[in-house]
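note to self: dont lose this again. the chain is below, predicted strucutre after it. 154 aa total, dont forget to put it in the shared folder this time
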Amino acid sequence: MYEFQISIHSPPQDIEFGAPIELRGRTLQPLTISHDTTSTRLTVTFEQAEQSLSALSRLFFEPDGSFVWVGATNGERWQVDGELYDGGVTLAYAELRGDCSAEAFDQLLTAFGWPDRKLMFQLVREAVFLNETAFRQYAESGGRGEGESGKVEE
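---
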């Protein structure tokens, strides 16, 4: 199960890896970005993301862009709460918090252009940006401090 509180962004062109850090018992390489990275928009519109998310079973979507999705994997219940932030032509970013299986998380990501487009994940509490590989390592440890260390590779 993944556990997370994140915002999802489109990565800028000039992104670089920073010095390794320790999070949830894993050594990860954060992304170093310039201050104006938050202006990088996702490639899907609010309406496209809404349509994709609304197609998921047991997902309730509000017109303001907030949603909740509940499910179970191998008898273990999970819930993801989210919010879409419209950036005009396309989404500015999305916020997600909760827990779910890796498979369910993949379904969520398709609403934001994945796997055709790379995504960047900001850990809200830690104020750290990660690429997908590092984020998945972080999320699967679920705050339990388990797992091996490893350098993130793109």
